[in-house]
Each structure stands twice: as structure tokens, then as C-alpha cells.
Amino acid sequence: MVQSLFTGEKLTCIRGGRTVFTGLDLSISQGEALVLEGPNGSGKSSLIRLLSGLVRPRSGHLFWHGQDVTREPEIYQQQLHYIGHRNAIKPVLTVLENLSYWAGFSPEKPSDLSRLEQALIQFNMLALKDTPANLLSSGQSRRLALSRLLATEKALWLLDEPSVGLDVNSVALLETAICAHRAKGGAVILATHTEIGLDTPQRINLSNYSPLYNTALLKQEHLEESWI
Ligand SMILES: Nc1ncnc2c1ncn2[C@@H]1O[C@H](COP(=O)(O)OP(=O)(O)OP(=O)(O)O)[C@@H](O)[C@H]1O
């Protein structure tokens, strides 16, 4: 039996005093992809942030290789790349300096420049390596952010709308990177409104777990409030 790399059980997320989603289970094994779908506000970004450790679940548990992540959160967090809506680029640094800066946070820092340059090649950014990041277009900035995925090796990629701002060719570069990552046994969980070409991904639609979109959950929430 294939052991799950990462599991979430009965996850509930509350933000701004409102239940964003509740009772959500997920499980991903090595080499798999999981696509989070759902309308605006259904909780895709909240789930990605919760999985990355940036938001705490109100209830439920996350397991990494069968171990509850709250026991040793830093071990779990060292195994993942999180790319959110924002590119987290330092505008005064060049493209290569930005990548080197990010890679420096990883315990397995790349020993030479070649790995960083390979990451830039994969996302067609090498020609811009000495360009200050404040001069990049929005699609180029996104490609620089995505280059982080390849600058240091992590087992789990958590990607929030990774293809926003990318042209068709750049989306293809992202698809190639994800495919190679999965072939090496990595896993990816991504939120997206547009189709990204992935081989047989799992899918979760957040609207099934959101009281905003699921009337049964909304009624249950009102019932629970009336008991308090
Ligand atoms: N920092 C925050 N504080 C309070 N509420 C928040 C916060 N961030 C998001 N929310 C709320 O959580 C709910 C889910 O938002 P989230 O961004 O996770 O949805 P989404 O499915 O990613 O939406 P979109 O498709 O528009 O990106 C929304 O109702 C939103 O108002």
C-alpha cells in the first residue's frame, strides 16, 4: 500500500469570525497532484495557507508521513515550498540575487550558482538574471517567483493561483516543472481558476465545504450559533 505523504483530517478554518470551510479531508501521496477548485471566497487560498502553516485550523489535524505536524512543525515546513498570490520579490535586488536570497532560507542551500541558473533557465529567466526586479513585467515577476520551486528541492509544492499573469508558453514551462517534480516523487497542491495541464490530478471543490456555498452547512452553522 502507498503511504500517504500528507494528510488533512476534518479541517475547519475560521477567518474574521466566519467559517470558511469545515469538515474537509485530503490526502496526497508521492507523485500526486491535487487541484483546489471553487468560486471566489470559497476558501482555496485559506486552505493553502492553512496547509503551509500560515493559518491555524480551528479544528482538525495535518499529518506529514503519518506524524502530526504540530509535533515538529519546523521539520514539516522545511519540506515545502509555498507560493502565494504575492511574488515576495525584493525590488532593489536583481533576479539572480532574489533567487539566491530565497534559497538562503533553506537548510539545503545550493552549493553553487549553477542550480540557481538552472532554475532560471527552466522558467526562461536567465537572460534577465542581472536585471533589477523592479523592472520586471508582471509575468516575468511571476516566473521569478516560480523559479524558487527549482532553486531548492522540497517534497511538497503549495501553489496559489500559480499561473496568474503567465502567457501560454510560460504556463507550459510551469506544467513541465510540475511534471518533472512529480516524476521524482514530489507532490503538488494548487489552487486555480484556470486549467493547468496535469496528469490525472485529484480535485477538491471548496464550495462543498463552505457555508457560503453549501446551504446544509450554513443551516448547521446557524443551528450551532443558536445553541451558544
Ligand atoms: N485575512 C483575512 N481575515 C479575515 N477573513 C479573511 C481573510 N482572508 C480571507 N478571508 C475570508 O475568507 C474567505 C475565503 O477567502 P479565500 O481568499 O480563501 O478564498 P478563495 O477561494 O481563495 O477566493 P478567490 O478565488 O477570490 O481567490 C472569504 O470570505 C474572505 O473574506
UniProtKB/TrEMBL annotation:
Q: Does the keyword Metal-binding apply?
A: no
Q: Where does the chain cross the membrane?
A: none
Cross-referenced InterPro entries: AAA+_ATPase, ABC_transporter-like_ATP-bd, ABC_transporter-like_CS, ABC_transptr_haem_export_CcmA, P-loop_NTPase
Which UniProt keywords are listed?
ATP-binding, Cytochrome c-type biogenesis, Membrane, Nucleotide-binding, Translocase, Transport
A GO MF label: ATP binding
Q: ABC transporter domain spans which residues?
A: 6-228
Q: Which Pfam families match?
A: ABC_tran
PANTHER family under this entry?
Answer: ABC TRANSPORTER I FAMILY MEMBER 1
Give the protein name, as stated in the record: Heme ABC exporter ATP-binding protein CcmA
Give the originating organism. Answer: Kiloniella laminariae
